[in-house]
Amino acid sequence: MSTHETTAADERAHSASDPIVEIRNAEVVFEMDRGVSRVLDDVSLEIERGEILGIVGESGSGKSMLASSMLDAVVDPGVLSGEITYYPEDGDPIDVLALSDHELRQLRWEEIAMVFQGAMSSFNPTMKIRTHFEETLEAHNYSLGEGMDRARELLSDLYLDPDRVLDSYPHELSGGMQQRTLIALSVVLQPNVLVMDEPTAALDLLMQRSIISLLEDLKAKYDLTMVFITHDLPLVAELADRLAVMYAFELIEQGPTQDILHDAGHPYTRALLNSTPNLDAPLEEMRPIAGSAPDPVNVPAGCSYHPRCSLATDRCVAQDPDSRPVDGDHVVDCHHWEDAADEIPLNHLANMEGDR
Ligand SMILES: Nc1ncnc2c1ncn2[C@@H]1O[C@H](COP(=O)(O)OP(=O)(O)OP(=O)(O)O)[C@@H](O)[C@H]1O
């Protein structure tokens, strides 16, 4: 999708912004026997210093590829191109894709930390949690005394008993405790950005909600910028200042959370909102999105959502829409976004109106 053309609104939004990470025209390609698989397609995104950004999309839409791209960590034989820039608070911008392996290792953890789905696979099952913290601090030449004090404080912040947790093997902790411990481990080197890829997917609803509120506290206390990646729109909407929606390996809409929830311009975002339980609409009003997401080897021409879209016209088949401003920082990649609100009413809004 073309995000190359900068509109006047983009310029205005850009000049007012203070990005900590900037992604420009990122693309990830795998050469497969059955063809070229483009699993990230010309994605441009700015992560603002101090914000909580939610990245939302269906399974397989490219969310994890976007997360790995931020740290030049796309697995072989995937080929990442584009520009990834990290802006430290002080000092010159860092071109992430030009870093040596050593510099990249420093950037990861010390500046930008990642937490992935399924905490158990991130721990070494033969090592106590204490050793995980100690090895991380030593590998980055951090003071062990200060670092372990910070580890204890972080574990307490996350409502864990530091002594018990540090003395345990990973399998001795529940799923929720493992995930909170992993978050503490990710933050122990005092990074500025914490990227979490489906950090609560394996947890029950209550534990998900409690981790969300702990993350809010952690962000405020440690002055973190957070990126929360998930398929669970209602969950991330509780936390995020801004949402970016992915469909078929592209970003198709970005904006402040409330604008997306109440005034989404992309038919896919509106369908996603209508297909999601928990947004104040009764279960019988949930409408699954008809059709299925495209195979990355065979993405439809034009707007990749057109085969599933009730508003699609010949123009959508022929022409990939550019990003266009809806209002302020809210941008959408759709030829027919002005008709979307009338054509695809939002269930949860209708119910809220009914409550008045
Ligand atoms: N190592 C790989 N080689 C080739 N294709 C891959 C590889 N890893 C992932 N893909 C493909 O890249 C696409 C995007 O995957 P990605 O994991 O980023 O999606 P996702 O939105 O994070 O999904 P989920 O929520 O299920 O994790 C998918 O079509 C997936 O099959």
TrEMBL record:
Domain ABC transporter per the UniProt entry, residue ranges: 23-273
Intracellular or extracellular location(s): Cell membrane
SMART domains xrefs: AAA (SM00382)
PROSITE patterns, alphabetized: ABC_TRANSPORTER_2
Top-level taxon: Archaea
Keyword set, alphabetical order: ATP-binding, Cell inner membrane, Cell membrane, Membrane, Nucleotide-binding, Translocase, Transport
One record GO biological process: peptide transport
Gene3D superfamilies, per database record: P-loop containing nucleotide triphosphate hydrolases (3.40.50.300)
Entry's Gene Ontology cellular component terms: plasma membrane
An example Gene Ontology molecular-function term: ATP binding
UniProt entry tagged with the keyword ATP-binding: yes
Major place of residence: membrane
Transport is among the record's keywords: yes
Membrane topology: Peripheral membrane protein
Protein name as catalogued: ABC transporter ATP-binding protein
Lineage: Archaea, Methanobacteriati, Methanobacteriota, Stenosarchaea group, Halobacteria
